[in-house]
Design goal:
The complex is a heterotrimer of chains A (529), B (406) and C (353). Chain A has 529 residues and is α/β, with parallel strands linked by helices. Helices cover 31% and strands 17% of the residues of chain A. Chain C folds into 4 domains: 89 residues, Roll (Ubiquitin-like (UB roll)), CATH 3.10.20; 76 residues, Alpha-Beta Plaits (2-Layer Sandwich); 54 residues, N-terminal domain of TfIIb (Single Sheet), CATH 2.20.25.90; 70 residues, no CATH class. The chains are: A alpha/beta (529), B alpha/beta (406), C alpha+beta (353).
């Protein structure tokens, strides 16, 4: 997030949510949005293919066809530009390439966009005016924006909209991706990415490589690494022979599970470090028992870039070992002797190599976490990014054309399938299926289907159905509802027993981010008799 | 024979309350005309000068109440409390049925004073037929142009006694559960939808046209000096003429009961009279010469309240009556504050025990301490006043209690 | 500034200060049930009443604004009498199973009865009782212990915005209820448990923690939630080296993101920690089966196999998936291991999924 969570409760006067079912995926952020709307009269725009909970209290609800995000956002920008509602001063002083973007956006009139997205033109106009008029407009998105073959384009379009209206760098504004996992921000910050070292220092930049070579005392690889989805494909094709999997469960979380399974089977060795024998661990050659978050010290970085402490509450059981120790031991055995006394010592090394974390110490975050960038120990942290200038200087507009999703419905697979999370479970359910209350409350997967579609297929609420795509099929219960339209079905990806990712496609990914298109694939649904 | 002095009810049954023109023919809407010609502050001064005090029970100076309303950008509201839920009270219904236009005019006059053009009448749920009269009356007044841009909406209660409490009434209009709010803030500052709101009783509003038409001095000269004007009383119980009367406020209880009321039914002796509704004190015979005005009543530990006069003859069982009253309060407590929610329940429980002859002195002691705490600590008037019948009868009719103790 | 005399002590407070705050500033400990600084005021429990000279009734200090020259007594005979009677009234209907109550030791009713020496209620008699059944797996609702402070109602609306519960019926029969008194699961409840957080007595408790430990038995360890990226702080309740529950801290310093608010996963989704099939020993696959192994054996085995792959196919034939679940420190070590020990940039994690 460029801005903080608290601003969504206090400062934002217009909140534009696109591709985030906030109340289910980030419930506490959802509370804050609701409070702002209810108590301060903040305006709410919700764009989502499903009539999610927050849509019910939205001033404008844009129920658009999955995968048409760029068109929708371009349409909104078209209205803003045509009506002269853009922040000319901001565009002038803080941005570049405005004309390029404008040229593309010109074509996306509300009428044309309405035909693409199935959103009434007047609602596009209404949303555009509302967001453009905002004293402080906050744009939030989540995986609804990113999990597309056009995910990067979608994000760029969100940025375009914020730049166009000057909704950046002030309290209550910002482009705010709501990150789905406790430490996804931190994992990225720490350079658990194929192209960057900690703090997004690009591997490809020689100076960076030299810096880390010096610090770590070894020659570092120069070749760009493989992204997670690419690595699975490489394993399938025999180019990756060994996989070390720390706290991940690709058998459930990665697209096209059959393909993942085949890929993992081809590996020479699969090492899994986890706290449970997950679906992936069951296929492993070696399993290292790590510890849960309740048994370890360390830090997580949340979606608003706030680095906070994780504290050990209980001792681990049996022979389970601290994850950092396992990694340190393995690193030594792989020929790079190292030893640390504690996570805090590791953090000290992180600080020395990660400028944005340099000023953060365990002492400083003993009570209240700090927002990076925090370059020195005197620095108060940075709740709001880009107040004076952007990381690259001027904010860059991108001219983004709308592209259809990779796999569209056809006669054989006539419906669109989107997948996502629900309130009561988390990711591959390795934890929440063992949290008895949560699992008792939501013990099995369901597919949400519009009542008309259900009626056409002779399906009643709660009946078993089969979903089939070109990759495979699963059986699960139908939840007949009117929150989505007749052409869309939605299911949850948590359940190994009816794993949504058996259905999803991993063939076409976002070309830049390598993200799979979980929000759109073509599916067939039938009643099981 | 003592005389009534009819002001509000002067043309009762001679004009149709639903027809504005009828009212206009007898001088109606002249007061509003005058009010609108006046400076807002002068208008409030005039009402203050008349000495008009609230006829709903609290007896607060009306003009004073209005003067607290801040005139800022936000909307303001005029709310008429017509949730006439006190058992034995029906004077507001009579006023509406006989002279509804005076109420409407009075609300519009208040509107002129606080620069508001939104009025609400909150009508008791048991009065659906009066709602019809009011709605037609409003329509007629709007059509005649008499109300100008002042709009009045009628809202119906759903049978909760506590909604007669002004803040509970406001909650109810807002669509919430009828529970009183704590004060401050008073409605004058933050009332309906948190906007400044004047809440007055039907009778209070209905006095205004006459004050404006005849002048503040005229009104101030009627009845008791500190609570001037007339008061509509409703007589119930063991009284010959169980009906309503409009009298000047310096009238005393004895005259009300014996002269207008024709005395106790069947020639019996009077045991007690309860004034002001269920939460009123029980007044023994020796206090009957007290004038009915607010302050005189307060001086003997009673209250004029709504103006209900409930007469009990010598055969009545005071403890039994108070037990029934305690049941009423138990039923009507909204349950918001502890002293009232649990206190009214325990009061009823102990009263029943006494009434059944199963109680001892310890129970009386418990009742007294409970009653004191409720008066001291309950959130709203309901809980604070609920023990008054118990207290006043323990004081004046202790013998009846002691007869029932074992 | 306003000048007040509270219990003979003169203090100054800014205009707009509530009497409760002023009393606390003057060192008076005022008992409260319904008051909660994070919630809309109710002014309904009347425990915080104080005596203000010149006022006819006792004043509920939580909703009474300070006025200049107020003279206040916070423990006058009238005040103490009112508090005692209120406690006795509550006690008269309260289910007194303190010996097995989850809230024992942290119950405000218990605390104040002790403070005002209320041993029993002179008002003991009949009382309304409410059925306890609510089949949801998260929240135990025992309204025979409810004192009707409505903090749960106000937290449900004011913090979570769920508006799942409100007061139903009147007077002594008033109770906290969902719409039409149905099950929580059929209401707009999202099982965040904010109601448990604010409940001053044992009426609302966690079913997941039930019987595992009472507040005075466990230690609280403040940590960051392990679920979504919001970064809520929560307290792991630890008894005998075992997590027995989750509570939250409402101090904005300690819990800056959520200020005590949690979601259903944060508050009720902790028992996986000690779930019976947790991995407790390294495993190695042998003849198609995973068998237990020592750390040295497992680490050596894994390292040898990786080194062999590296020797045969080069470092880029190895990939490492780090994790968005583990700490920064562990992510740092993971990517470092890939880069320095294996010699590849093939390191990624589930950010994309």
């Amino acid at each position: 997030m460029t801005n903080t969570i608290e601003e969504l409760e206090k400062d934002a006067t217009v909140i534009f949510l696109i591709g985030t079912n906030t109340t289910e995926n980030h419930p506490v952020i959802g509370y804050k949005i609701k409070k702002n709307v209810r108590e301060n009269g903040a305006k709410l725009i919700v764009a989502d293919p499903r009539r999610i909970e927050l849509a019910e209290m939205a001033d404008v609800f844009l129920q658009f066809r999955p995968g048409t995000d760029v068109a929708l956002l371009n349409g909104i920008m078209n209205v803003i530009i045509n009506e002269g509602l853009q922040d000319k001063d901001f565009i002038e002083k803080r941005t570049e390439a405005y004309e390029d973007m404008k040229q593309v956006v010109e074509k996306y009139t509300p009428e044309i966009v309405s035909a693409i997205t199935a959103v009434p033109a007047e609602d596009i106009v209404k949303a555009a005016r509302m967001y453009a008029a905002a004293e402080a407009g906050s744009l939030c998105y989540a995986m609804g924006i990113t999990q597309h073959t056009t995910g990067t384009d979608n994000v760029k379009s969100c940025c375009n909209l914020a730049l166009l209206t000057g909704n950046l760098g002030r309290p209550g504004t910002g482009v705010n991706p709501l990150r789905g996992q406790n430490n996804v921000q931190g994992a990225c910050d720490m350079g658990a990415l194929p192209v960057t070292y900690p703090a997004y220092q690009a591997v490809a930049v020689e100076a960076n490589r030299e810096k880390f070579e010096k610090a770590w005392g070894v020659k570092l690889p120069t070749a760009k690494g493989l992204m997670l989805t690419e690595a699975i494909n490489a394993a399938y094709h025999g180019d990756v022979k060994a996989l070390y999997c720390l706290g991940e469960n690709p058998m459930i979380s990665d697209p096209d599970s059959h393909h993942v399974e085949a890929a993992l089977k081809k590996l020479d060795i699969l090492i899994v470090q986890d706290i449970f024998l997950t679906e992936t661990a069951q296929m492993a050659d070696v399993v290292f028992p790590g510890v849960s978050w309740a048994e370890k010290e360390g830090t997580f970085t949340n979606t608003e870039r706030r680095v906070q402490r994780v504290r050990k509450a209980v001792n681990s059981r049996g022979d389970a070992r601290q994850d950092w120790q396992i990694l340190s031991d393995m690193t030594t055995r792989l020929g790079y002797p190292n030893s640390y006394a504690s996570p805090e010592e590791i953090f000290a090394e992180i600080r020395s190599l990660t400028p944005s974390y340099a000023g953060i110490t365990y002492d400083r975050i003993e009570q209240t976490g700090l927002h990076w960038p925090c370059p020195t120990e005197e620095h108060p942290g940075t709740p709001i990014l880009h107040t004076e200038k952007f990381s690259r200087g001027l904010g860059l507009f991108h001219a983004v054309e709308f592209k259809e999703a990779f796999e569209l419905p056809d006669e054989e697979y006539p419906l669109i399938l989107s997948t996502g999370r629900q309130l009561y479970h988390y990711h591959t359910r390795s934890m929440t299926r063992r949290a008895i209350a949560l699992d008792t409350h939501r013990p099995e997967n369901q597919v949400q289907v519009n009542q008309k579609t259900a009626a056409k297929l002779g399906i009643l609420n709660g009946e078993k159905v089969r979903l089939t795509t070109r990759r495979g099929s699963i059986e699960l219960k139908a939840q007949v509802t009117d929150i989505l339209n007749e052409k869309l079905v939605f299911t949850f990806f948590h359940y190994g027993e009816a794993a949504a990712n058996v259905l999803t496609q991993g063939e076409a990914l976002d070309p830049i981010a390598g993200i799979p298109e979980y929000k759109v694939c073509a599916v067939r649904m039938e009643k099981i008799i | 024979m003592a005389e009534e002095q009819r002001v509000l009810l002067k043309y009762a049954d001679q004009i149709d309350p639903k027809i504005a023109e009828d009212y206009i023919k007898v001088g109606g809407y002249k007061g509003l005309e005058k009010a609108r010609s006046m400076d807002r502050k002068a208008l409030i001064e005039e009402v203050k000068k008349s000495g008009l005090r609230g006829r709903g029970g609290a007896g607060f100076n009306a003009g004073m109440k209005w003067s607290f309303v801040p005139i800022l950008d936000e909307d303001r509201y005029v709310v008429c409390n017509f949730d006439e839920g006190e058992p034995g009270t029906y004077k507001d219904r009579i006023i509406c049925e006989k002279n509804a236009q005076a109420l409407l005019e009075g609300m519009a006059i208040c509107g002129a004073a606080i620069a508001s053009n939104h009025g609400y009448i909150y009508c008791r749920g048991e009065y659906p037929f009066v709602v019809e009269t009011l709605k037609e009356g409003i329509q007629s007044a709007k059509a005649s142009g008499a109300l100008g841009d002042f709009n009045i909406e009628v809202r119906m209660g759903a049978g909760a006694y506590v909604c007669g409490e002004e803040t509970a009434l406001i909650e109810s209009i807002e669509g919430h559960r009828g529970e009183p709010r704590f004060k401050p803030p008073f409605p004058g500052v933050a009332g309906l939808w948190a906007h400044p709101t004047v809440v007055n009783n039907v009778e209070t509003f209905a006095c205004l046209p006459y004050i404006l038409t005849n002048g503040a001095e005229w009104f101030a000269g009627i009845g008791a000096a500190k609570y001037p004007g007339t008061k509509v009383l409703t007589l119930t119980g063991d009284v010959v003429n169980a009906t309503y009367f409009e009298v000047p406020t310096d009238y005393n209880l004895r005259d009300v009961i014996y002269k207008l009321g024709g005395g106790v039914k069947g020639g019996k002796k009077l045991k007690a009279v309860q004034v002001g509704g269920t939460s009123g004190a029980f007044i023994p015979e020796q206090n009957l010469d007290t004038p009915i005005d607010f302050d005189s009543m307060s001086a003997i530990g009673a209250s004029l309240g709504s103006g209900a006069v409930f007469v009990m003859d010598e055969t009545r069982d005071i403890v039994d009556i108070v037990t029934r009253i305690s049941k009423f309060f138990e039923h009507e407590s909204c349950g918001k504050c502890n002293p009232c929610r649990e206190g009214t329940w325990r009061c009823r429980e102990i009263m029943e025990k006494i009434n059944a002859g199963k109680a001892g002195q310890k129970d009386i002691d418990n009742l007294m301490i409970l009653s004191r705490v409720m008066k001291n600590a309950a959130l709203c008037g309901l809980g604070q006043a609920a023990p008054i019948p118990i207290d006043s009868t323990l004081q004046h009719f202790a013998y009846e209690y002691s007869c029932k103790l074992n | 500034m306003l000048k007040l005399t509270i219990n003979d002590k003169e203090i100054e407070v800014p205009r707009g200060t509530m009497l409760l705050d002023a009393c606390q500033q003057a060192g008076a400990d005022i008992p409260t049930f319904c008051y909660d600084p994070d919630l809309k005021l109710a002014g309904s429990c009347r425990m915080c009443v104080v005596e203000v000279q010149g006022r006819r009734n006792l004043q509920a200090s939580c909703v009474t604004p300070c006025e200049n020259n107020m003279i206040v007594d916070t423990e006058s005979a009238n005040v103490v009498e009112a508090r005692k009677i209120i406690l006795e009234l509550l006690l008269a209907r309260h289910k007194l199973n303190c010996m097995v109550c989850e809230k024992v030791g942290a119950c405000k009713l218990q605390e104040y009865c002790y403070r005002y020496d209320v041993k029993e209620s002179r008002f003991a008699g009949e009382a309304a009782h409410f059925t306890r059944e609510d089949p949801n797996p998260f929240i135990e609702r025992d309204y025979d212990k409810c004192i009707m402070c409505t903090r749960c109602v106000r937290a449900c609306e004011g913090i979570t915005g769920a508006q799942a519960i409100n007061v139903k019926d009147r007077g002594h029969h008033a109770k906290i209820s969902t719409i039409f008194d149905g099950k929580l699961a059929d209401s707009s409840c999202v099982f965040c448990g904010q109601c448990i957080m604010v409940c001053p007595v044992g009426a609302l408790t966690s079913k997941v923690s039930m019987g595992k430990g009472r507040p005075f038995e466990y230690e609280k360890v403040l940590t960051t939630c392990t679920y979504c990226g919001t970064g809520c702080m929560l307290e792991l309740n630890v008894k005998d080296d075992t997590v027995v529950g989750v509570t939250s801290n409402r101090d904005a310093q300690l819990s800056p993101v959520n200020k005590g608010a949690l979601c259903v996963k944060g508050r009720f989704g902790w028992d996986f920690i000690h779930y019976k099939d947790r991995l407790t020993t390294p495993l190695i696959r042998e003849n198609g089966q995973l068998r237990e192994a020592s750390w040295d054996e497992a680490l050596d085995y894994a390292a040898n196999r990786l080194n062999a792959v590296k020797a045969q196919h080069g470092p880029d034939s190895i990939a490492l998936f780090s994790s968005a679940r583990v700490t920064n420190e562990e992510n740092y070590l993971a990517q470092k291991m890939a880069r320095v020990a294996i010699g590849t940039n093939n390191v990624d994690h589930c950010a994309r999924l």
